[in-house]
């Protein structure tokens, strides 16, 4: 609707210039590296703000609430941002609080939240609306023998652990703490304790901690039968096997923990290659659900940016700028937009990708985010 000012901007009814494109920026390795601004990042976001070109931050990172994370980024990159400008790895988990119906709602169910520093992720989950959140640290402090080797971290866990809502009582499963869902919100800091607790629950009787289902995963049982018959479902928020941190080489991410846990599961339930498939949900880039969540958020922001208008010109292009071919490029390339937007991936050299033929082919490769945006602005003319 309205006059077309070249391909990039369309004048809507109230004669405001509305761009028919937007940007999605990965954070680690694109805007920040080890929490420090990457050269050109601040200037780039300032330019888009000046030209009223919408953008969203789309990260597999997390561990803090969106408001807290954007406040930090806003300060580091000197750009005004609010919680709606970012989608973190665990942001979509907020939709599980109410679920799609009474039975799927987890709001009042007892959920395990693993990962992150201290109980930061518990507090994020509570800010999302989860009312009964337990951490592996709580479980350890209530039962230190659950993992004999975390005693070295006792002083750490003591700083944030809370009493369990119910005791762990192997003798009386019905009375023992029951976990209804397990979430890995961010990279676990104590892979050993988190692996042990999650394995205990995957092998439990109906999610009652300290019990063992009569069929689940015991090599001494005839069929190692693993029945998803009430064990809590396991949700991972970030598939990244590697990510760009301070060290010059990529570091293991939450995907590393997932693969380690998967190895323990396979060995427990039948051995390599014979293991029983571990039922789990993994969200985050490159998966469709996370890109859909980001696109919905982007459309809400675009409407807000233009006075709540609902008849804005179609969002034709979204330029996804990332450093990790496996999550950012693969995700944008394979995303099938629900509104017919074309997501175009741009790979930068300031993070995980360090040259050569990337496993997933981007629209273009740029030295850094500033050059990537310059390329996109040219392309959208
Ligand atoms: O855990 C953070 C890491 O997985 C990468 O985050 O911002 O590059 O998607 P990001
Ligand atoms: Mg990255």
TrEMBL record:
Pfam family, one: Hydrolase_6
One GO BP annotation of this record: glycerophospholipid biosynthetic process
Superkingdom of origin organism: Eukaryota
Gene Ontology CC annotations of this record: mitochondrion
PANTHER family, per the entry: CDP-DIACYLGLYCEROL--GLYCEROL-3-PHOSPHATE 3-PHOSPHATIDYLTRANSFERASE-RELATED, SUPERFAMILY HYDROLASE, PUTATIVE (AFU_ORTHOLOGUE AFUA_2G02580)-RELATED
Name recorded for this polypeptide: HAD superfamily hydrolase
Organism the protein comes from: Penicillium cinerascens
